Amino acid sequence: MKRVLKVLSVSILIFLFSCTKDYYTPPGNMPENVSFSSSVIPIFNNNCVSCHNSGSTEPDLTPDNAYADLTANNAYVVPGKPEDSKLYHRITGQGSLMPPGGSLPQNDINIIYVWIKEGALNN
Amino acid sequence: MKKTILKNTIILVLTAVIIMISQNSVQAQQEDTSGAKKVQKPVRSPWDSDMLIETQTGVVLPTKTLEFVIQHRFGTINSETFDLAGIYGASNIRLGLSYGLFKNFQIGLGTTKNKKYQDLNWKYKILTQTRSNSMPLSLTYYGNMSFYALEDEYFGENYRFADRISYFNQLIIGRKFSRVVSIQLSVQYSHFNMVDTINLQGIKHDNFGLGLAGRIKVSPQTSINFEYDQPLTSPDKIKPNISLGVEIATSSHDFQIFVTTYSGIIPQENLCYNTNDFFKGDILLGFNITRLWGF
Q1: Hey, are the CB atoms on A23 and B79 less than 8 Å from each other?
Q2: Is the pLDDT of residue B88 over 90?
Q3: Tell me, what CATH number does B105's domain have?
Q4: CA–CA distance, B6 with B18 (Å, rounded to integer)
Q5: Which of B8, B141, B159, B166 has CA atoms 20 to 30 A from the CA of B209?
Q6: Which residues of chain A have a CB within 8 Å of the CB of B114?
Q7: Is residue A74 over pLDDT 80?
Q8: Domains identified in chain B, total number
Q9: What distances in angstroms separate CA A122 from CA A14, A33, A66, A71, B8, one per listed residue?
Q10: In the structure, what pLDDT confidence band is assigned to residue B1 with cuts at 50, 70 and 90?
Q11: How far is C-alpha A52 from the chain's CA centre?
């Protein structure tokens, strides 16, 4: 019984001293007026197109086809709503995390977030 | 909708507990009339391993026993293109070690690919079901403390180390009904020190869930396992887990292969962030392998 009490005491102490309630605050330098061609496409090129290319795993994220594939029927991107977009779910680990080798840098996630939030324009 | 699920789940749990207790009461009365007094030995092998697909079981490793576990989840089988039922898709894996520190208590460590979770876990068996049925149920507590090992920038502007930490606590009530059937119910509670309410609206720091799991033995070494886990307080887009699998056990190995909804492996990740919907075909193949060594 003493052992049980020791274990419980240590567990409760660890829990109480490290338990907080914080909220994620996006970095202050969130990008603005994100360009799909010059900001988003390079992220796809560096991290995604090795698998997501023409004739392979969908969506096709090669520069010529990425926009059409992502936005057709709002399948992967819902303009203005990153929280409802499958693309954003995947890169933030809701469901299966993409890329499979590990999370994108937060700056790249922010770029995609802002691009969708600004209406997912083909700019 | 949420309230209805909660209400139905509570009714389900209460009904199951009443059935378990009432069955014991009948058996206890039968034993009393026969006048036989049995030795209070624990029931034999209520489960074949300390885990069952996604959840923990009431099994705690014997003292001075080391367990190595490999948990693997493939990608979802409903990929838009051919990826061999998710085998070529995005996978997740956890490698872990657990050790029976003293009687009825084990401690463990693990590392997981997705979100680079590093977990410290512990399990304590509070009550053990006995063969004589003097104790009809087993009661086990499982907990873990997990750290994201992602880069600092992942945690936003006001980063502090504690933001990396999350917790999971589970109380498991189980019963081996016969040589064939074992069932367990669990109450789950998780806490994330930091949540991202921008990207997942409605997510809370503290979340609760209920779980139902079972084993049906079809041969001395083979079982059919099933599991259902219902988040109670997570946002609507967070979906429950439905899993079904086969388990093959030997004295020192256990091999489980299954289809499941969860891909996170870490229980608090599954409880709070699973968006895979079983009814939309978001299911995936997975397996667990354990190996035991006695010292």
Answers
A1: no
A2: no
A3: 2.40.160.40
A4: 18
A5: B159
A6: 93, 97
A7: yes
A8: 1
A9: 50, 12, 10, 10, 47
A10: very low
A11: 16
> Across all residues in chain B, what is the average pLDDT?
87
Would B213 be classed as within a structural domain? yes
Q: Considering only CB atoms, which chain B residues are within 8 Å of A25?
A: 156-158
Per the CB < 8 Å rule, is A103 touching B154?
yes
Lowest mean pLDDT segment, chosen from A47-51, B27-31, B129-133: B27-31
Q: Which domain holds residue B156?
A: 42-294
Ramachandran class of B45: left when φ > 0, alpha when ψ lies in -120 to 50, beta otherwise:
left
pLDDT attached to residue B22: 47
Mean of the pLDDT values across residues A31-36? 90
Distance between B180 CA and the closest CA of chain A, angstroms: 32
Query: pLDDT tens across B6-44, in order?
Result: 555 555 455 555 444 444 444 444 444 554 555 689 999
Helices (H) and strands (E) in chain A, counts: 5, 1
Q: Which of B217, B209, B218 is nearest to B189 (CA)?
A: B209
DSSP B42: B
Specify the length of chain B in residues. 295
Alpha-carbon distance B106 to B117, whole Å? 20
Structure tokens, B101? 């520190």
Least confident range from A107-121, B77-91, B159-173: namely: B77-91
pLDDT at site B26? 42
Within 8 A of A23 by CB-CB distance, chain B residues are: 194-197
Tokens of B212: 């139902």
> Residue B278's closest chain A neighbor by CA?
A95
Which chain A residues are within 8 Å of B155, Cβ to Cβ?
24
pLDDT above 70 (res A70):
yes
Give the one of B76, B143, B154 whose C-beta lies nearest to A96's C-beta.
Answer: B76
In a domain, B229, yes or no: yes
**What's the gap in Å between the CA of A38 and the closest CA on chain B?**
22
| pLDDT over 90 (residue B75) | no
Q: Does a structural domain hold residue B28?
A: no
How far away is chain A from the Cα of B193, in angstroms, using its nearest Cα? 5
Quote the minimal CA–CA distance from A30 to chain B in Å: 10
